[in-house]
Amino acid sequence: MKLPRPGPLGVRFLLAAATYVGVLAGTEAFGLEPQPVLLALVVALIATGLWLLLDALDDATTPWRIEPLTVSAQVGRDARFDSFVRVIHGHLTAREPNPLLQERLTAVAQSVLEQRYGLVLEDPQARQLLGPAVMGMLQAPSHHRFSLSEIESFVTAIEEL
User: Do residue 38 and residue 101 come from a single domain?
Assistant: First the structure.
């Protein structure tokens, strides 16, 4: 619904003044005793509120545009991958190694073993499939810092299962 747009500021003051004079004359015509200052304040308040409302509801001349949200992840990458990248970066750059990397790699190894072979990590056959290097990484103390090449070899070994 298109609302009527009030005119420029001078026209608004003229409309408010005409309203004031009309209400003042009407109250005197009916024999009432108006208070001119109070009536002027009421007319000014109502006119200002009305014009603010009309200006706010008139969306035809709205100067701003709503920009669509940008996706922070790159196309082709998912949140899980980004999470692994952050964990590896945190492990390599933190003062103290975080056991989260070891926990994540253990969970991935367990998942691959279950999906492809129906085995659990504690199974001797699973230990044989993973090999001594990966098992050593999974059982290493949580304060051990792995190098990037070690992490890469562990991930490659898990992928090749």
Answer: no
Q: Is the pTM of this model over 0.85?
A: no
- Domain residues for the domain of 87 are 82-159
Neighbouring residues of 153: CB distance < 8 A, sequence distance ≥ 6: 133
Decide: helix, strand or coil at residue 146: coil
The sign of the dihedral angle between the CA atoms of 122, 127, 132, 134 is negative
pLDDT in tens, 138-157: 888 877 788 888 888 888 88
**Which tokens belong to 47?**
């006119």
Domain count, the chain: 2
Q: The tokens of 154 are what?
A: 């562990």
Tell me, yes or no, whether 74 lies in a domain: no
**First-residue to last-residue Cα distance in the chain:** 65
Query: 10 Å Cβ neighbour count for 94?
Result: 12
Is the same domain home to 127 and 88?
Answer: yes
Q: Among candidates 27, 71, 20, 9, which has minimal Cα distance to 45? A: 20
Q: Distances from the Cα of 80 to the Cαs of 52, 121, 131, in angstroms?
A: 49, 22, 26
